[in-house]
Amino acid sequence: MTDINKNPMVLPDNLPRPEDDGAADHLVGMRVPELSLRSTSGEPVDLGKLPRRAIVDAYPMTGVPNVELPKGWNDIPGARGCTPQTLAFQDQEKVISALGADVYGLSTQTTEYQKELADRLGLSFPILSDAEFKLTEALRLPTMTVEGKVLLKRLTLVINDGVIEHVFYPVFPPNRAAADVVAWLKDNPLPHAAAAEEGPSGVLIYTTAQCPYCKAAKALLSQRGVAFTEVDVDLTPGAAEVMVARSGGRRTVPQIFIGRKHVGGSDDLLALDQSGKLAALLAEL
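-> C-alpha cells emitted (285 positions)
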C-alpha cells in the first residue's frame, strides 16, 4: 500500500483547499521587471523580455526522495502537491506550446535543488530560481513561511510581452493547474493572431506511432537535416484537438507546421521539397 504521507506523487483525499486571500489581486496588468533568473536549463531567463507568451508555474517547494517533508506539510492549505503540479505541466507542455506559450517553473529554492527534480522527472521546460527573492519582492508575490523558510504560494502567471495578463490563484487541486491553463489559452487567443496559428518557431509535426505517412515525413525532414518537434496525438492529452484547430479542421496525420505556416501532410511536404520551396520556408525561421 502506498503511504500518501511519504509519496509526493499521491495527493491525500482530504487535502485542505487554500482560500483566496487577495494576495494576488494586484498582479494583473503589472509589468514584469527585467531580472535575470538562473534556470535548470543552464541559461538565464528574463521573464520581462520573452518573445512568446509565458506560463509561469509557481509553487512552494518540491519534495526530495527519502527526505521528510516539513512537519504538518499536508495540513497547510496550498502546500502539498508541487510534484504532481509540475508533472501536469510536463504532460501538457507540447499542447501549451502549440497554443503559443512556453512553460516555466518558479520557486524560491536554489537551482541546484531544482535540478534534482528536473533531472529526476525528465522535465522539458526550465525551472527558474528566485532564491534571492528579487522577483518575489518586485511583484509582491504571495508567500508563506514554513519552518523559517519563505516559500511562494501556489499560483500560475500568464505573461505576454512583459506584462502579466492573467493569474490563476489560488490553484487547487495542484494537478489540475495545467489543464486549467490549456482551457484558458484556447478561450483567450493572442490579440494579434488566433491561438490556433501560434505554433512553435520551428518545425512541428503531429503524428501517431503506426502511421506510415508520419514516418515518411519524419524521414524526409531528417534527411534534410531539419530538427523538428513531434507531438503524438494518441499519447498527448488535448493534442488532437489542437491539431484540428491549427490545421483548419484536418483530422488526419501527419499535420506539419513550419513556424506559423501549415504545410499539410506528407505528400504536401514532399511536393514542397521537390519544388525547392521547402528550403526557402525553412530559411525564414
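The chain has eight helices and twelve strands.
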